[in-house]
Amino acid sequence: MNRVLPAILLAFFPLSAAAWQEGAGYLELSDRLDRPEDGYCLDVAGAGDWVDFSMPLNAHNCKRPGFHADGAVTFSSPGPIRFPAYEGCVTAVGLNGRSLPGAVVMLRPCADTLDGNRTPFVTASLQDFDHREDGRIELSGTGLCLTVGTDSAETFSAAHRWRVLALAQCESAAAGRSVWKRFVPER
After folding, report:
1. Measuring CA to CA, which residue among 21, 145, 10, 135 is closest to residue 74?
2. 86: helix, strand or coil
3. Concatenated DSSP letters for 105-155?
4. Residue 182: strand, helix, or coil
5. Do the beta carbons of residue 74 and residue 84 sit within 8 Å?
6. H or E stretch covering 94
7. Residue 88 sits in a domain of what CATH number?
8. Residue 62 has what DSSP assignment?
9. CA 31 to CA 122: how far, in whole Å?
10. Which domain holds residue 48?
11. 16 with 24: CB under 8 angstroms?
12. Confidence of residue 186 (pLDDT cuts 50, 70, 90)
């Protein structure tokens, strides 16, 4: 029935720390918004043994000091944004290779690893991103950019906050919520 299920299960077994840290860094929102001390980074829901791949990705305050698997990405624009610790890629929610404004992004197996077992929900076009000259990250050729929500809330700890992460029209998205930079934390 679902030929992709085994690939999904295999894709989310974490690699050793040395393997996933190679070349990885955080993707950080340029404007620190209500987190002047640490800002917001692209993040997988949960942490450690409590990572939940069924939840959309979010913007979580950047976890400093240290380097954590649930925020570590590799990204060579244009191309997929990979979470190497989980062998998954940022995937826009959509159908038949198309997404819409307001769609969330999820962590899914990378389309280039599925050996032809792609579905209408996991295609290379839903995982191909461009880091534009203006700092926005666009789902390639769509005019839709990764944008964080206007509101933040605390997580399981009052010391941490998160924001919704979704696609919005690049040209109308507030720069403070849609301009990103990559940094490699000290290890």
Report:
1. 21
2. coil
3. EEEEE-GGGSTT--BTTB-GGGS-EEE-TTSBEEETTTTEEEEE-S--EE-
4. strand
5. yes
6. strand 94-95
7. 2.80.10.50
8. -
9. 31
10. 5-183
11. no
12. low
Q: Across residues 63-76, what is the average pLDDT?
A: 89
Instruction: Give the Å distances, CA to CA, from 76 to 4, 7, 122, 132.
Output: 26, 23, 19, 12
Q: Whole-angstrom Cα distance, residue 91 to residue 43?
A: 13
Overall number of domains in the chain: 1
- At a CB cut-off of 8 Å and minimum separation 6, what does 150 contact? 177
d(CA 80, CA 98): 15
Contact 24, 69 (CB under 8 A): no
pLDDT tens, residue by residue, 123-179: 889 999 999 999 999 999 999 999 999 999 999 889 999 999 999 999 999 999 999
Q: Tell me which residue of 167, 181, 182, 176 sits closest to 35, measured CA to CA.
A: 176
Question: With 70 as the cut, is the pLDDT of residue 37 above it?
Answer: yes
